[in-house]
Amino acid sequence: MTGRGRPRKAKGPDTQCVEGKTRLEKLKPVSLPKGPENGFAEEKQKRTIKEQKPKARKKAVHFEEKPCVQSSCEDKTTKSFTEKTNKHQSTPTEITKACVQETKACADRDETTDLSAEKTTRRPKDSPKPTKVKKCGGKAKSPERNSEEVMKVVQPEATKFATEASIKTTKAKKCPGIETTTKKQPETPKPTTKACVPQERCEDKVNSILNKTLENLKIKRDDRSGAAEVINTIVKTISMHLKQNTQCFKEVEELRTGSYYENLKISNPDEFDIMLTIPVDRVKVNPFGDDGAYYSVELKRGKSPLQTFQKTNTLSASEMLKEFREEVKKCVKQFPEWEVTRKKKGCPAVTLITTVQSTTISLDVVLSIMVKSSWPPFTKEGIKIDGWLGTKVKKEYKQKPYYLVPKHEGNGNVENDGVLAKDTWRVSFSHVEKAILKNHGSEKTCCEKAGAQCCRRECLKLLKHLLNLLKEKDSSFDKFCSYHAKTTLLHACSSRTKDSDWRRSDLSCCFQLFLNDFIAHLEAGVLNNFFIPTQNLLSGLNQLKCKSLARRIREEGENGFPIFK
Q1: Which CATH class is domain 442-565?
Q2: Closest C-alpha to 139, from 115, 174, 170, 171
Q3: pLDDT (tens digit per residue) in 1-37
Q4: Are 24 and 31 in contact (CB under 8 A)?
Q5: Residue 273 · residue 428 · CB < 8 Å
Q6: Vertex 377: Cα angle to 374 and 383 (nearest 5)
Q7: Higher pLDDT residue, 515 or 68?
Q8: Residue 449, pLDDT score
Q9: Residue 232, CA atoms < 13 Å, CB-side half-sphere
């Protein structure tokens, strides 16, 4: 019946779109009360509509809070999705697009239904607007419950299809509320860049140059034995002369130090250092200056042959060295092949030269006194080998005596507390340096036949050779000596303590790090004595020359050491 007499019964709100609100959620028909009178049907219907408007509003909100699970839109979308999947076996991307299109169509129908519902219900002006689902980008957000139900239907089909097709996953736009499951291929590792290949080749080339240089720096066995025989003969003769013909130096003892006896000599066995030491007991040692490297010595009461050289309670280093030099010259007269060179200012040694197999050999005979007491306080923060060689080894070294050589710095007539600079002594730990460099590994088997080989000594040899070559090209670098390189190595070994940090196979890398250490010291103008941290070994050198040498060394490293070729 199409008239207005009898209204239609409203169906339950059992339809809901997968992305939007219930289609009949906003359009709730109002049931008219049943009555026998047909004449008053129209009037009662109007009155009932007015009375039931608030109730329709409440029911619409109630259905929005508790939406139904299934909808005709959902059925249509799922059906369309399934048909397309079975018919065409399309890709996951196509499936997703179909889902999006169906969802958009459903959303458009929802908007049309919203407009018709508003016209039909004709809510009062004062009543609040019914809550609408917020839309983002023209698509309505579906409730979570609907999403879960849709996933149960769609996900197995998509998963099955993806498994059968075995198609690689591509990024696709996801249908809101629907999750498609596809197989994800494992990520392929990024290819290694070819930039490291030239670097490896460069390192191999540098390694080859350095190893070839080290091979050329080796001393031949015949040259070594010939030079050693000549040196041993003259040293033994001088020692015997002092013991037999002098009263002051009759207790002299030999102490062989220097690069030759540390196995650090390069190229030719042309330089040797021998310390002739005289032990002293009961002495008072006072620092001269602030750096802790120079000291004045006072012999306490007792019978000592060195009392002859003590003036005003100070053992005169200059007077003692003068007498020592005269005795050495007397001894050398019986060896015409040896010549005593002129004394150098501030040098504690008597230098002798001779020629062996067309090679000029120089021998520095150094006078020293051996102090059998605890080391000076300035050495407290020095010799940091705890993490490298161990605290026990450090303790053993510090229990040894130390040596003082007759050397001063600057003008010898400078006076400090009544003591002239030329009468002072410089502390020496050359015997400890020799012990450290000969037993340099954190492991006891380092550089032994059965142990791993390190490149500590090789790095020092290369730097010494580099310095010599640069000094030949530029005489302004003459004041830089091998002791600067040795001190840098001791500091470097204390900071890189493990033998694995100095692998022989990593020579080029280790040598570059070692050069960087030396360059840093030169640029800063600071190279602290390894045993006396308060003494700066670069303090007396021109800072511009230090930076110039650092620049030259850096250039050599960057260009692959052309100076070695």
Answers
A1: mainly alpha
A2: 174
A3: 444 445 454 444 444 444 444 444 444 444 444 444 4
A4: no
A5: no
A6: 85
A7: 515
A8: 85
A9: 7
CA distances from 384 to 185, 258, 414, 490 (A): 56, 21, 33, 9
CA distance linking residue 98 with residue 57, whole number of Å: 35
Whole-prediction pTM: 0.65
Q: What is the pLDDT of residues 440-488, one digit of tens each?
A: 999 989 998 888 999 999 999 999 999 999 999 999 999 999 999 999 9
Where does the chain hold its CATH 3.30.460.90 domain(s)? 196-439
Where in the chain is CATH 1.10.1410.40? Answer: 442-565
Tokens at residue 514, please? 């070692």
Supply φ then ψ for residue 506, to 5 degrees: -105, 35
Question: Who contacts 551 (Cβ-Cβ below 8 Å, separation ≥6)?
Answer: none
Concatenated DSSP letters of 487-522: HHHHHHHHHS-SGGGGBGGGHHHHHHHHHHHHHHHH
Q: Which are the contacts of 353, defined by CB distance < 8 A and separation ≥ 6?
A: 338, 339, 341, 360, 361, 362, 363
Q: Which two tokens stand for residue 248?
A: 């002051």
- Does CATH place domain 196-439 in 3.30.460.90? yes
Q: Tokens 């080029």, residue?
A: 508
d(CA 376, CA 427) in angstroms, rounded, equals 9
**Alpha-carbon distances of 517 from 68, 457, 535, rounded to whole Å:** 77, 15, 18
Round to whole Å and give the CA distance between 266 and 283.
Answer: 39
Residues 6+ apart with CB under 8 A from 381: 533
Residue type, 487: T
* SS3 state of residue 262: coil
